[in-house]
Amino acid sequence: MDTNIIQSQPSSIHISDLNLLAAQPGQLRVIRRNGELTVYEDSRIAVAIKKAFLAVEGENATNSERIQQIAQQLTKNITERCKKRWPAGGTIHIESIQDLVELELMRAGEHQVARSYVLYREKRREAREILSAQPEEKLIHVVLEDGSKKKLDMHMLSSLAIDACQNLADVSPTKVIEDARKNLFDGVAIKDVYKALVMSARTLVEVEPNYSYVTARLLLQDLYRESMDTLQVPYDLTKQTMQTLYPKVFKAFIEKGIEFELLNPNLKEFDLEKLGKAIDVSRDLQFTYLSIQTLYDRYFIHRHEKRIELPQIFFMRVAMGLAHCEGAQKNERAIEFYQLLSSFDYMSSTPTLFNSGTLRPQLSSCYLTTVPDDLDGIYGALKDNALLSKFAGGLGNDWTPVRAMGAYIKGTNGKSLGVVPFMNVANATAVAVNQGGKRKGAVCAYLETWHLDIEEYLELRKNTGDDRRRTHDMNTANWVPDLFMKRVFNKENWTLFSPNETKELHDLFGDAFEKKYCEYEAKAARGEVRSKSIPAINLWRKMLTMLFETGHPWLTFKDPCNLRSPQQHVGVIHSSNLCTEITLNTKANEEIAVCNLGSINLVNHMKEGKLDSAKLQKTVKTAIRMLDNVIDINYYSVAAAKNSNLKHRPIGLGLMGFQDALYLQHIPYSSNEAVTFADRSMELISYYAIQASSDLAVERGTYSTYKGSLWDQGILPIDSIALLKKTRGEFFEQNTEQTLDWDTLRKTVKKQGMRNSNTMAIAPTATISNICGVSQSIEPTYQNLYVKSNLSGEFTVANPLLVEELKKRNLWDQVMIHDLKYYNGSLQMIDRIPSDLKLLFSTSFEIDPLWLVEAGSRRQKWIDQSQSLNLYMAQPSGKKLDELYRKAWLSGLKTTYYLRSLGATSTEKSTISDGKLNAVQVESQDALPKACSIDNPECEACQ
Question: Taking 50 as the threshold, does the pLDDT of residue 133 lie above it?
């Protein structure tokens, strides 16, 4: 234990008896202004609120029932916020509680009472200053883990804050210390001293984004101690630098990790001394608070709840796990992979970060299955779901083959209850089997639009109706054939069938599907097969209605996925995955599609306002190699998944930081320039990804089903657009411009082949983008100032690039912070912000979603799989939704993800004369689906 922030003190010094105040799990305690510790009593808060009302309304209001009810409700709100901020219990300064009282009064619209309360506090503060012109330094003793007591050394505490603020603009170690001291009391535990520093810096992030780095560095100091204590590495942080200690900790981590049966013993085969020297300690300084806290809470390996992994060791462990298959070059490759990860130029997906280098390296992100139409097959698929979900895989299930309600069952001479009851069982399975003990399983069901149960399927997420025919925890998506969309446009009828009577439809697409579908319609007209005919536009409207009301089912398009698939010669794509970016073949009982994901950080590839193509090419080349290694190293819990992955070797290289890259170029998302950047950036990534996979084929050989693929035919993703356009006819509006030398690459692929059947897919990246400190995936900014929640409580996050721009124009001040809070991170209603900044920093609901569709269309032409594309709409209407999703289909999109919408009550906010006390809202749970939110992600596989 490093005890340098404490001084020895004779044992005769009295320590307050804390037994009476012992914090039970979740127990809150309050630090009074004199440093004394007392229990948290919400009754005292209620009394203070009542007094505030009486000060305004007079003593005649003493018995007012209205005031009693308001005080009770506001007190309840304050207590809930305290428990959210300190979920495991802790100490709160009295000033912090009074701040919350102010905020709750303003939120309740009691502005006059709030102002009176503010003035009262100010007067009390002035009085205390007069009475304490020279306040006596309070004596604080620290209780160590062994129960001994020592005096707190404030000088050493200050040095920690000074070090954390080093080389950062507009931050003050004095402010951090002053705020931390308010949360220290006589008898404070040593671990709470470090925590107080972190918490005090964290509260300043909304004022100055650089405090996020200060908070991260203070948290790192705590992590260094925790890890070295647990690994029993001797240290003295006052005399030794982490540059010296890191290699020692790294070696101890590998040895102890193997001893504790947490790491794969083959990690001992690496040159640990060489790898230890390659660790770049300075990269610990690039973490924001959110990034390091996310890693601490979820990623770092721990034993008995104590972290034994440090940030750079974490990246090296992941790199070693991915490099072990590199033979004699494994040390050099591990260093190469480490450099890419630790620089944030590229980041592997969460399963890879979790499990690389461990005893069970389940590194793949997504699994896609087809459920067959027999009882053994159905329950076999559910078992596969359970096994895959157990080891943290996100699932996409194709349910189309399962016969509809009322269909004949030969074995029992009875009638089927349809596909819905089995989906209910799948829903229960997902809840019962969590992801590696971390989260409940996450599944998305897919059903084709011609299935006779489609109308009931659309209602699976409704909150009303028979719960046995609902799936409240399972995502759903429509798998829509082009023929249905054509009939919507032409206002024609649509016929529904049971798949046990129309089996061919499941495996057909394009013209072949249309021909066979029309044949079955003719049979239905003659009464030879069961069917139901409805106006296509009516079913379309119900799809959009359910999408708006329940957020499901998402709209994904069967034909563009298949007609542009490089692998259409060996199978059919029957669904996408949980996050709608994976489009791979599946076959019931034989092939479970697997995808292995990682994302390029676009921000780190910007140079003087432009993409650095040379650096991007280098990054992509290494990233493709890392992803290809995942396939061979991966642990497979189901044989059909292993068979598929090794046979076709698909990978999904994506990107993150798109919005931030636009900011750096001063390009608004809602502009033609943004659409062009989406086009050009994806063209470069596509070119280099295909080139890298082809070069890897020279070294390692082509994937086994390469012969006959579109690659083999010289048809690249940009060329496959012609195949879709041919079947679409007039219903096609996708741009096909290109700027690079694709003819040369076409010849290269024809000559060398491809190592991977698929190379690109843009995942949501919700969690890994937080690690890298950049915007999520291809998402627009949700809010410029908002509250984040993680396992360690709530904290405010400001858009640092906005703050930077406002500083340049002398507009960043306390008034601006209050205005941003009041308007929930939106700039549009703040008069003193220039129009160019309002446009540049428009938030997701302020951008016309047609811009998102157009940017997505430009990317889609280069991608051999798909992209996780969320659409945002403020004040949606049936007409707007109809226009948006028709445009998505016409533009050649393969899939869409969540529709995130706000009602009029959320998008309109009346002004008040003084909104300075209003606090920013926590991220809207209605607007931000849980599946992609760090707050409570259902699945982190694609993140």
Answer: no
Q: Active site residue: 459, 581, 779, 940, which one?
A: 581
pTM for the full model?
0.85
Average pLDDT over residues 106-121: 84
Residues 40 and 117 in one domain: yes
Catalytic member of 210, 427, 577, 756: 577
DSSP string, 39-68: E--HHHHHHHHHHHHHHHH-GGGTT-HHHH
Instruction: Measure the CA–CA gap between 303 and 28, rounded to whole angstroms.
Output: 27
CB 272 within 8 A of CB 331: no
Q: Collapsing DSSP states into helix, strand and coil, what is residue 149? A: strand
Domain boundary, last residue among 118, 137, 156:
137
> Which among 579, 595, 772, 939 is annotated as catalytic?
579
Mean pLDDT for 473-482 is: 96
Give the residue, 22 or 481, on which the prediction is more confident: 481
Q: Residue 109 is part of which domain span?
A: 36-137
- 579 catalytic, yes or no? yes
Between CA 275 and CA 324 the distance in angstroms is 13
Domain count, the chain: 2
Please identify which residue in the block is written with the tokens 């010849």: 747
| Rounded Cα–Cα distance for residues 4 and 12 (Å) | 21
For residue 308, being part of any structural domain is answered with: yes
Residues 209 and 326 in one domain: yes
**Contacts by residues 172-178 (CB-CB < 8 Å, ≥ 24 positions apart):** 175/200, 175/204, 176/200, 176/201, 176/204, 176/214, 176/218
Verify whether residue 699 is a known catalytic residue.
no
Could you say which of 338, 361, 384 is where a domain stops? Answer: 338
Would 473 be classed as within a structural domain?
no
- Whether 80 is a known active-site residue: answer no
Q: Peptide bond before 553: cis, by omega within 30 degrees of 0?
A: yes
